[in-house]
Design a protein that fits this description.
Helix content: 40-55%
Shape: elongated
Strand content: 5-15%
Largest sheet: 2 strands, antiparallel
Order of helices and strands: EEHH
Length: about 70
């Protein structure tokens, strides 16, 4: 069986412009779950998680209010 090579992620420069490719190192799961502020991947992950939590809570409150009025 042939050894599996690790893929490297190649991205374009800022805003995906036509520029030199930037090689990124893999990030550990504990690093992605870190509470970091600013324009970081960790902040974007937590922003998405909290947005989904708020959406879920809001829809649940609307559903319970509708069922209570019926």
């Amino acid at each position: 069986m042939a050894p599996v090579e690790q893929e490297t992620v190649m991205e374009q420069g800022p805003a995906m412009e036509q520029g030199p490719a930037v090689e990124r190192e893999p990030v550990s799961p504990t690093e992605l779950n870190a509470w970091r502020r600013g324009f970081t991947p960790q902040a974007e992950i937590w922003n998405g998680r909290l947005a989904m939590l708020g959406l879920s809570v809001g829809l649940s409150v609307l559903l319970i209010a509708r069922l209570a009025n019926s």
